[in-house]
Amino acid sequence: MVIVMAADANTQQVTAVVDLVTSTGGRAFVSRGLNRTIIGLVGDVDLFDSLSLASLPGVAEVMRISAPYKLVSREHHPERSTVRVGGVSIGPDSVTLIAGPCAVETPTQTLEAALMAQQAGATLLRGGAYKPRTSPYAFQGLGVEGLRILADVREKTGLPIVTEVVEAADVPTVASYADMLQIGTRNVQNFPLLQAVGDAGLPVMLKRGMSSTIEEWLMAAEYIAQRGNLEIVLCERGIRTFETATRNTLDVSAVPVVQRLSHLPVIVDPSHSGGRRDLVVPLTRAAVAAGADGVIVDVHPHPETALCDGPQALIGEDLSRLAEAVTVMASATGRPVNGAPALIG
Amino acid sequence: MVIVMAADANTQQVTAVVDLVTSTGGRAFVSRGLNRTIIGLVGDVDLFDSLSLASLPGVAEVMRISAPYKLVSREHHPERSTVRVGGVSIGPDSVTLIAGPCAVETPTQTLEAALMAQQAGATLLRGGAYKPRTSPYAFQGLGVEGLRILADVREKTGLPIVTEVVEAADVPTVASYADMLQIGTRNVQNFPLLQAVGDAGLPVMLKRGMSSTIEEWLMAAEYIAQRGNLEIVLCERGIRTFETATRNTLDVSAVPVVQRLSHLPVIVDPSHSGGRRDLVVPLTRAAVAAGADGVIVDVHPHPETALCDGPQALIGEDLSRLAEAVTVMASATGRPVNGAPALIG
Amino acid sequence: MVIVMAADANTQQVTAVVDLVTSTGGRAFVSRGLNRTIIGLVGDVDLFDSLSLASLPGVAEVMRISAPYKLVSREHHPERSTVRVGGVSIGPDSVTLIAGPCAVETPTQTLEAALMAQQAGATLLRGGAYKPRTSPYAFQGLGVEGLRILADVREKTGLPIVTEVVEAADVPTVASYADMLQIGTRNVQNFPLLQAVGDAGLPVMLKRGMSSTIEEWLMAAEYIAQRGNLEIVLCERGIRTFETATRNTLDVSAVPVVQRLSHLPVIVDPSHSGGRRDLVVPLTRAAVAAGADGVIVDVHPHPETALCDGPQALIGEDLSRLAEAVTVMASATGRPVNGAPALIG
Amino acid sequence: MVIVMAADANTQQVTAVVDLVTSTGGRAFVSRGLNRTIIGLVGDVDLFDSLSLASLPGVAEVMRISAPYKLVSREHHPERSTVRVGGVSIGPDSVTLIAGPCAVETPTQTLEAALMAQQAGATLLRGGAYKPRTSPYAFQGLGVEGLRILADVREKTGLPIVTEVVEAADVPTVASYADMLQIGTRNVQNFPLLQAVGDAGLPVMLKRGMSSTIEEWLMAAEYIAQRGNLEIVLCERGIRTFETATRNTLDVSAVPVVQRLSHLPVIVDPSHSGGRRDLVVPLTRAAVAAGADGVIVDVHPHPETALCDGPQALIGEDLSRLAEAVTVMASATGRPVNGAPALIG
């Protein structure tokens, strides 16, 4: 931590900062310049944070140097992690395709979507039983009935299930059906929920908040990790910007940036990033090319009747293009597609 | 709702849209232009939403015309509402000052802050017992112990309490102490929490999400209203932009825009908007001048030791300037300050 | 300037930084922490900038401490400036109203708008003869013919003229007619134009770029000041954000922030900020209440036929409300309205 | 164009809109709904724009349907274009690498950088002689002397030159040396400059403004095209968002979105997007994978002494990784690298 004193700070004010820091067990190094004095702090950063140093007279700025997250940081955990979901590994050694319907609507629709996903090479099934919707008048998901449908489809297809949970109280129920718990973009700073999935003992997919900085996103992951659960996969899903041609702006740079800062796997959701069916394949290519450890896409047997996000769901003809995009880009970046037959044999 | 067909849409595609709409009981009016065909829909918009019309072949765009919120809209409730909290009214007929510490830390600190607030003209006490913090290593609030301190201070000062709740499961507990429940910026789309405070039968202060559009914010209010609770006060607290000179960018235009769209009272939080003590008074002036029904500010007897947001908390000398700013601007906009002695007599 | 070394930087790397800095005449103070080493630099910041210190091995971050602008900074010019335009003063001792049509269209329209402006208390006339328009198919202004109309209206009304210039080559021509040169939002980083108006010897109104940080905006002013012209008035006109309810988001906080950083006067354009006629009066109130030294608004005798920005232009009935808003808010903030009769007498 | 009337609009107001539209030669189709009336307009959109329809009594909203750009639109020019620069083609049939120093500093530095670029597979040389810099105290480029250096290096290496022009008056001079004129991000709405390069008869590279929507960017291209110059290459270079981990946020979705809307080639600048050397290769991979027709990168023989943007310039070891990334991704998307020896033979 570095404290920059105001240009007109006097000696007593500098001394007051040094005294406060040393009184808590920290050390303070003073560098006097022609116009400014800078104080470098060494010690417990969280303790320093609690001192409200920026409020002291004569202090112009307080700059944090170390990352405020620890468990998810790559600093003390240099090798990148692999997270196992059911029998499927998500991590640096392969590219994983996760697919399924945005919302579980009926047993038939879910099974059809799962078979479509599987045929395209997906090794994990996504599907929402609890849907956070901007409008209270929109379809909110089938709840437990949806979870049962997912479990049934898992039995039929063998695909482990990724599904969203939106409330801490629901975590035990959802965890009793799911293979991986998803935290959606609107809940990235729902701290009780993060702690509850941290306690649940299941892998977690943590979507980036639509206006989260990368640092805030990693801090949200730290909330889960702090409860002893490091089985976390980060999912970039587009951020909110001024551009309206796409639903969100895919921040593809987040993939290499996160991989440099954190050991956790990071995947991309091209469906929600663009919000347009015609962008799913090019954005999938970009994501895998940038090094993403996987992608998660919406598929639906009949998008025109979908109760949620139909305009971005892939249908039959697109899926083979998606499958090809994933295969080609995985190969071009020197990784196999997870579960691809050629690699098993 | 208006459907714009693609330039190359054919007659069958137009007919398909019309047929789908009419099959659900809606009516469709077709306007054929030189290059484009436009279809105007009349009927149940939520039903139309569920049809995924944007996915139909030949459809270029689907545009919604009516506001997607109803209960909080001014369309069918033209007069502006007043919300009563304890004996205090928040609404168009006065300017209300809410003040208190960001976080409840000790009985003494809370009482001191409350007395400071009261002396500055505050008629409601704010104070957080449950604090959503970006870092899991930051102070998270005292919980129930904090609520007890608040209740005690209410008894000593007579100030009704506004306090945040961050989890649906905590609503009954918090509601048993509080006079008004606050939903923070990170929970504006925590739909189970919105529904829980909708059920709680207490007035609610709903902060705008840091990246919520005004429409999304009003939709969040609609979630509360749908549960039969229309005692909602909206609170603008700054939005996330590229500017870094302030913690957030106060969207002062939101005050008149919301007042035109919704009948609910709207107040402003100048402390969290700017994140700087020196901006609280000018932003308070701007907010009241723009027509805000009140302001909510952080005060702390000793900001330099505050466990939360010390840099923005007002202290002794600032508070009299704040009190004067509120009084002068309320008068300049033709409203009394809520609870001001001169107006009682 | 502060250099933060990477956690794994070695002694040679620290020494290399120190040597490079000292070889250019600067001084370097090394603070070794448990995990990190920090180097504080003292000397010529621009020279340090040219060293590309961030590229040196072992350097994690380079942080600038002093403001990168000098002439427009309040650091060495603590009293706030007043800029004189024709006989009118814009500065901290009064509130100035500037009004007129977005674009000069005809002699009649311009004169009518000027008389409307004058009646509302405006002491300066705005009007565009050169219009930067997003579409090449939109009306681009009358050019020199428009300048002649403005000069004619000045003669008839006595109002000095503020008008935009969009190209360095046009500066002499525009300067031969205008009393104040306006730089529009799209040209805030058109550096040759900034230098040309710096050379022109006339006061300049510098609008904020729609995506300029406050620092970048002050740097743009520094370009003008560097040419010996400190007669600069800054104009906040809304920034680009995700919110679509308003054309731009008025950053009202910019008023007190700029006044703290720079000695230059700062005014607000509520017409272009909101882009809606119904917001002009409340945003004017907010701007003056926040301390703005003036406001600039669009007026038009017949907005429904305006060739530019009709939807935001004030008409007859609104103007008296605007005049009242300016008067009341100037009084509430302890300043007279510039040129108001009551203050002359 | 569609006009949505307010809920309380009366018949006279609807008639007034229809009459105004028809009086200008347009046609108006009225759709009356239960709550709202919608009017569809057919005719000359630019004329409609000039009517200020949004200002008419009873009008709630005016929605444009057709794209406001024409010459650069793909609507009437469905096949994608190829632009020729010197002997080099930029377009859909290949992937072009453009590289060189951010700023021309000395003949040696420029030649070294050009040879590095050429060795990595670049077929065009970039280099700035006129540099728009945020600070007036930063290096502003060598001007004509820099152009002479570039011409000299072109003679030695055979690489055609892409270089920036920042002022309309400089266009003839720059055009007399350059093979392609570059318009930088800060000048995307410098309309006199756009018109001047439109007149210059040379190919133009038009960078996206850091806060331009895709539509505004295409409108800027339309300004150039309107002067009879359709030899335009668009360059995505990152947009301004709230994220601070990268200098800008690369909007990789812009590549497929632009290719759908416009026939012009689109390339990506991964150096300025990320502003970090370590992101250049992954962002190059993402860009080419998404379908970009080329990339433009900064290289410098000695980034630690670069006068401009040293932290993002590639050096020796990185360049072979860049060359490999371009080759692999071009191949994975079925295109040759422009000028690659294997394709000549």
Provide an overview of this structure.
The structure is a homotetramer of 345-residue chains. In chain A, strand 7, helix 3 and strand 8 form a beta-alpha-beta unit. Chain A folds into 2 domains: 2-63, Alpha-Beta Plaits (2-Layer Sandwich); 83-344, Alpha-Beta Barrel (TIM Barrel), CATH 3.20.20. Chain A has an 8-stranded parallel β-sheet. In chain A, strands 2-3-1-4 form a 4-stranded antiparallel β-sheet, with helices on one face. Chain A has 12 helices and 14 strands. Chain A has 345 residues and is of the alpha/beta class.
Layout of strands and helices, then pairs:
Four copies of one chain form a homotetramer.
Chain A (H helix, E strand, L loop, with lengths): L1 E4 L5 H13 L3 E6 L4 E6 L2 H6 L8 E5 L19 E3 L2 E3 L5 E5 L6 H13 L4 E3 L17 H14 L3 E4 L6 H7 L2 E4 L7 H9 L4 E4 L6 H13 L5 E5 L17 H8 L4 E3 L1 H5 L2 H13 L4 E5 L17 H17 L8 H4 L1
Parallel strand pairs in A: 7-8, 7-14, 8-9, 9-10, 10-11, 11-12, 12-13
Antiparallel strand pairs in A: 1-3, 1-4, 2-3, 5-6
